[in-house]
């Protein structure tokens, strides 16, 4: 048994109290009882001796008359009791008669108390106070000692029984007190180091302090059970959330990688568009130079027509010169037609690029929408690209319209120049119509000049638009570079989140293991 346990202390206390009580019963009670019994015996003996001496004094007075019959009758009454012997003496201390005695045993008028005898001698006096003799009585203590021994044996038996009863009562009482405490300790040990069964409850067998303790212990276990259940539920939810976060992190990482790839592709497309627009600008510069050359030629032709009108006398010479200039103009206009055809192809290529840019912007917008908040900046850039594609498409359409007009004008100019050649060939025969023809040709030339100047202006506008598109594409390229940087940062953040998720998953698993030790 554990010497530090409450049960051991209670049993030790009960044993000490019982042992002290038994010692008191064995030592103090017999001694006090013996002393009291001896005192009572001495008082009884004194009373008996006084009563006997008074009776024997009367017998001593009638001794002569009845020959001692009264004395003998009194002595016979003392047989078989505590009185062992009696000696009756006369006034001269001479032995008269006795019981189990033929002489005086001692002559001292006193009381002698030994272990086995109580000896008393008393003077006998009559009613007048005259001494009639003395009586000496020996009382046996055998019965007294036997009674004392029996009483001591009873005291020993009672003491041992009392000690046993105290120990039994202490054991029962300690079990009633310690039993529920041991049950509480066993339950706490099971929770701390065993199966952790929180479904068990303490039995409420009483309404005392131990019962109240059991009640509150049950309430504590019940609340602990509810707490563990809630922790288990929260751990399950955390586990589900961590799995969802891991899946989301993987998807986000994939989206970031995809966004980087798309950004790289967009940057390549922007570089291609920038190069194409620079080529268009160069072609526009060439077209502008050609248009200026055409305008200069038309102005020269107009001056020649004026000279024809003013110098009719030199018709043949001027006609030849005009025919030569007409041929040159036809060649240049044919060259202009070829240039306009090339510009038409370029504008168609620009239109195709604008359409592809618009489609790429639409795809980028869809990708940004699927990326959520992380794609908001990219969605703005995609929107700007889409708007710029629309503007480029519109400007290209306008250029194409202008080129169609120029081609129509060029074709008309070729026809007109053919008419001029015919007129020049017939100038010798139709001189009277030279003035009218010259005015008509002058007007046509002015119209051609105006169209050529419009073409030059459109070409300059196209150059400005192309430069603006190049600047915009440069800005888009810079934005795409920022998007690429953002994608890198997003991927780094996703990687860090993944590490945190792994750490959280480990914590959740540890929490599962911890609460799994309890049975709820």
TrEMBL record:
Superkingdom classification of source: Bacteria
GO CC aspect terms: membrane
Transmembrane segments: 6-29, 151-173
HAMP domain boundaries: 175-229
Family matches, as InterPro entries: HAMP_dom (IPR003660), MCPsignal_dom (IPR004089)
GO biological process, one term: signal transduction
UniProt KW Membrane keyword: yes
Pfam family, one: MCPsignal
SMART domains for the chain: MA
Protein family: Belongs to the methyl-accepting chemotaxis (MCP) protein family.
Name by which UniProt lists this protein: Methyl-accepting transducer domain-containing protein
Taxonomic classification: Bacteria, Raymondiibacteriota
